[in-house]
Known about the structure:
Radius of gyration: 49 Å
Largest sheet: 7 strands, mixed
Low-confidence stretches: none
Helix content: 40-55%
Shape: elongated
Strand content: 15-25%
Amino acid sequence: MSESLRLTPEELRWTLDISTLPFATTDELEPLDEILGQDRGVEALRFGIGVRRPGFNILVTGAPGSGRMDAVKKVLALAVQGGKVPGDLCYLNNFKDPEAPILVRLGQGQGARLKKSMQGLVDELRKEVPKLFESPEYLARKNEINEAYEKKTASFFMNLEKQVKEAGFALVTFQGRQGQPPEVMPVVDGEPTPVLKLEQMVDKGRFPRDEFERIKAKHSEIKSEIDSIFLQVRQLQKEIQEKNRQADKTMFSNLADDLIAPLREDFACEELNEYFQHMIDNMVENIAIFFAQEQPPHMPVGDPFEQYTVNVLVDNSEQQGPPVIIEEYPTYRNLFGSIERIVDRSGVWRTDFSRIKAGSFVRANGGYLVLNLLDAIMEPGVWQSLKRALKSRKMEIQTYDPFYLFTTSSMKPEPIEMDIKVIVLADTYMYHLLQHYDDDVPKIFKVRADFDTTMDNTGEAVSQFARFVRARCAEHGLRPFDRTAVAALVEEAVRMGGRQEKMAATFPKLTDLLMEAEYFAQQAGRDMVERDDVAQAVEARIHRSSLIEEKIQDMIDRGSIMIDTDGAKVGQINGLAVYSMGDIMFGKPSRITVATSMGKAGIINIEREADLSGSTHNKGVLILGGYLRKMFAQDKPLAMSASIAFEQSYSGVDGDSASSTEMYALLSSLSGVPIKQGVAVTGSVNQNGEVQAIGGVNHKIEGFFACCKARGLNGEQGVIIPKANVKDLMLKPEVVDAVRGGTFHIWSVGTIEQGIEILTGKKAGIRKKDGSYPKGTIYALVDERLKNLAQAMAQFGKDDNNKKD
Length: 805
């Protein structure tokens, strides 16, 4: 039977017939301009991009290296062609409420033009306003108003002075009291005399009291008259000042209106018209800034004209279509912007509308934003803010810095209406976690684009792969690949895919391999890359990462790790394990031993007892008991204790790929028939004795082959694999050559019976109708041993009871 189960060299590796490649070198091909091997993901991407509805954002899932980002870039590049370019966004000062800046939406490129125009307007006003208030027209108008005031004031004082003089009084003005009413004094003996002094004279009898009383009453009357007149003068002053201010405002407004008129026509916008009017009113109120060297005390510290600038938040003047932004560093600041603050000359933190900065989320408005999910989740505040913005379709720029003590700002910019498509890249595990724990994800990411790591190995796929190689050569300036090199690359892609019917779709990794192969062609001085260059690149890649593999092999070679590759032993077998070190996988054998005895413990998993066994391995061991019960415990109990151990295993065991191996060792221990140590085994088993597929079959075979090769191939060595794994074989050429030369063998089995016959050279045995097995077969020996153990157990129990009696 072993001959019929032995695999031929042709079954061990899929090879590409180079005669099917209709080119000599890749220079003859058209570069591939489409996305290779990801039809499902690309179709979902195009669907998600095409649906312009709320919530139809896209989660791109798949393993890193599956070309997700390249696919997104290519699909977006096609999607934005001929698309509408979004307009510009600007923030302007709100003169009524500076803490609530005004958002203005303008056409493409108009934001920068508005900023330049506003700067020109302010510069023109700063130059023309001083000239305006020095013009003859202004001075004449000012003099006319002042002369009218002076005439009216002079008339008031002339009448007052005449009235005072006729009453025998005089007006006396003291220095240092300008703007204050003059003092009224009675004239006594031709001299103005203060009323207080006159009262003292009356007390001394030097002036008649009745005359004093008359003068005093008249003094009070005149003083009231003077106060009334001065009130009228002050009111007149206010009126004149108001007239002057109105005149200034009128002249300034006329000038400003003339200068702003072109802006009103150029930027036909209701919001801007209202803003221009508020700006002129503010300038009138603070007209002193156009003259003073020092700014007015009530103005903010800094440039007083900064409040009239334009903060161009988003400038799309250079855009040819909808923006596509790939945010590789999605911190809160980079993604959502911020409101910057500065310390002014007085040491106070301050900010204003001009300090509002846009992040990539706002800059991508009207287009597409691409980011990595893990980066967004790791950054504080980013994921929650992103969800909030996508649900509300609004963005309010705020400062967020969880590591800074003072982060709040009273400024509340006007929110921005968002029309954006967000594409988030995530691995499959993160996607399922989000779906489970975050209820918002299905609402705001309604489309999933799932990218595979493999594609079907078809003739069309091979042709497209060759064109892919041509495209990468053109992109990176590589030497052309001849068809033998392309065939080698395809075969390596099939090996990376893990099945003969599949090819790897991890194109970034394949692109790296192209550049590495081209390097070896350059070192050899060839004008094109050949098969040997690709093979050398593959071997060099393995060699760079194989230090641990070599150290383990060295330990096997010198006997530190005990592995037998010839002879036969009872209850001992070579299992195969795969070691994954991130950038490399390799297989190595591991000795498995079984010891059986009379008892009731059943199958003891020593790894489990030592807390070194994973749950999947535990399950595999438990299945062994089920198979034994089915095959040998139909007419008797299993009165057996069997311990199974992975020898020299100290770091834990998991997976069920050794369960068939353990079953073979258990059958050997029970039957007493030795197992060939030159044959290693891999495969899981079910309770029916069917051998099931496992992973890493190529690495496992190659690992045992390396051990046998190091000790010398004798033609009796080989590996037993599950029949279901035959289509997964893509072994190294040296293993295939060894099989072809008869120095190494590979068998595929579908049942435990087939495997035990290869390992022992004896028939397994088929159960008869009476439940027994043919004499001399493995199963007959096992059945006999289990029967003896059961009888001995029963007799032992009787003897023990008799002793107690």
